[in-house]
Amino acid sequence: MSEQTREELLTLALGVLPELPGTVDVLSEDGGCYQITIDGLEDDMLLAHAPRTAMRDDLHLLARVYHPGRGRYEVEFEVVEHFFHSIPEAQVHMAVSGVRHRKARRASPRVAVSTPASARIKYCRSLPRDTELDVRLVDISATGCAFVTQKELATGDLVRVQAVLSSRAIDLEARVVRIDPAPYERYRAGCEITEISDLSRKTISALAAQSAESGSEDQRNPEEAAARAESRAASTALSARLGPAVIEDE
Where in the chain is the domain with CATH 2.30.110.10? Predict the structure, then answer.
């Protein structure tokens, strides 16, 4: 199949994006999630306004959109050039670099786990770069993961996650796409993997396949298994804070 032209990709994108002018939420490859306003067209590019400090030429952005008649789509943009518009905003010329239909099911099989891990901040709205977080990995696949943390992260934050699975070191970069409250004033961060070595990916895929073949309850109900893992971790942490029980003699 021949590669689609910029004009063809633009036509596909206009078929699933909100009617122009309209706003969409985008994820940036530099980290962060923010809203841009697409005003119209110029030649084979989109004209938009976006946060000025977050823009640069050649920046790649990702919008996840839902069309009532066509379903869920991912639309990728590339910033061709940007100009000063106002103190908070830049005027942006964007080319559409990709349009993909999002399937309802997960792209890769996942497995529930419960293992300590470290998450180093690469981009975060609320924490400095290179901040190290002690987290608990509770869910992982070759394309995504979830961990529990005491810090409230935000959609679009980028982290470097390191853990040991099946006696092998796992090192990956992930973008937070969902954040939910968890027991004991903690948070569950659902992430998509943006960078991972082939060895780490193979290790994760093999672990997921092994769990699926075993037919374990955790594999059949990973959300429940993750919740149990979070509860166990929270109970352990609470016990550690309270210390050992003392029984007084009567």
Answer: 6-101
